[in-house]
Amino acid sequence: MSEGKERVQSRLENLQAIEPLISSLRVLSLSTMQMATNRQGMLDEYAGRFNQVANLVRKTVDRKEVKPAQEEAFDFRPIQQHQVLAVIGSTRGIVGQYNKNIVRLTRQHLDANQGEPIHVLAFGQRIHPLLRQEGIMFNSQGNLSSGSLPEYDVAAKLIREWDQAFDAGNLSKVSILSYKRMESATDYRPTLTELLPVKSDQRLDLDEEGQDNWPIPIIEGDPELIFEKIESHITAIRFYRLILDSVAAENLFRYRLLEEAKENTSNLLEELSLEVRANRRKEITQQLQELLAGSGLLAQR
Length: 301
Known about the structure:
By secondary structure, the chain is α/β, with parallel strands linked by helices. Helix content is 57%, strand content 13%. It has helices at 5-63, 98-112, 128-133, 152-167, 223-295, 297-300; strands spanning 82-88, 118-123, 139-140, 145-146, 149-150, 171-181, 188-196. Helix 4 runs antiparallel to helix 5. It is elongated and about 110 Å long.
């Protein structure tokens, strides 16, 4: 049974008003994803150059004699250690299963590490209600990104705090649960990444053949402090890249949903337009029949 012509016309007008908005959001999501991907490329290029210099510094300092650190006074009081699990959710809506997948893996990680003192930090306002529904205790945080740009001040402050707590022995591990790009440029999956402590395979050392002919650096200052600064900056680079991965993944999810909504809207607009035209033909036919009947022409036939 067909809908009334007024209702069909109203739905058609509403969809015609919504369609440009869907198209604009779709283009915005795609452009934001591309900007985040481009910034990843620039970050990777910078990371490569930084690690070339860092490797030379390490080799140069290794040749020098490093004075052993003075032993600190023994403190019999045990240090209360804890772990940090930073969960990066979406900053805006229209992302489908994006946040639900992150929450599901958060629950699995906590269940697998029961008894461990894990502090959950939740970034992205959209994921907070889902964590509450799952009964997960967390510290509410803001957003780590603004559009395609990481909030460097927020991220840098977090890294400094984690480094200090780790060096003080209060923090044993920092893990990031976020979407991470796989081999394909359009394949992002929720992944648990261990940010601290830094492992040897995460130092991004380069082969000799892949290095430029940098001059031998002149090293001044405390070698241990130099190593700490290098490792901290490498951690920052890895953290920023994870944030950019999250931005790209969020907008990819949004783009796909908006693309599907655009196709559905276009199909529905076509169906409603055909129905409106059919109703108009019926009205015209009925009016002609009434005119012919009124003039007696229809009866003569």
